[in-house]
Amino acid sequence: MNIEVKILGTKTPQRYAVRRAVVAAQAGLGIEYPDLQLEISEVRDLAEIEKITPVFIYPSLVVNDKLVCVGRFPQKGEVLIWLQQALSGCA
Question: Which own/partner pairs from 33-37 qualify as long-range (CB within 8 Å, at least 24 positions apart)?
Fold first, then answer.
């Protein structure tokens, strides 16, 4: 099972904070889905970010090509829900 996750942001500390929430959520799903693999990429380029969202001062998150969080830091529980939705095909 693969899920593609993109972390959008121009500032490294912000992307790092979002990555930590994503990795923590992945760990929470590890028991139920031991073969779950996340393909996490970071989009730093302003032009690429603007193709997805006009918000670039704060981070955003994309799961399987769906923008799920814009301009804020998501909590682990929120990321967990988005990953579960992606796994069930609802995302």
Answer: 33/1, 33/87, 35/1, 36/1, 36/3, 36/87, 37/1, 37/2, 37/3
* C-beta separation of 17 from 61 below 8 A: no
Domains of the chain, each with CATH number or no CATH: 2-88 (3.40.30.10)
The whole-angstrom distance between residue 9's C-alpha and the CA centroid of its chain comes to: 11
Please give the chain's pLDDT, 91 residues, in tens.
899 999 999 999 999 999 999 999 999 998 899 999 999 999 999 999 999 999 989 999 999 999 999 999 999 999 999 999 999 885 4
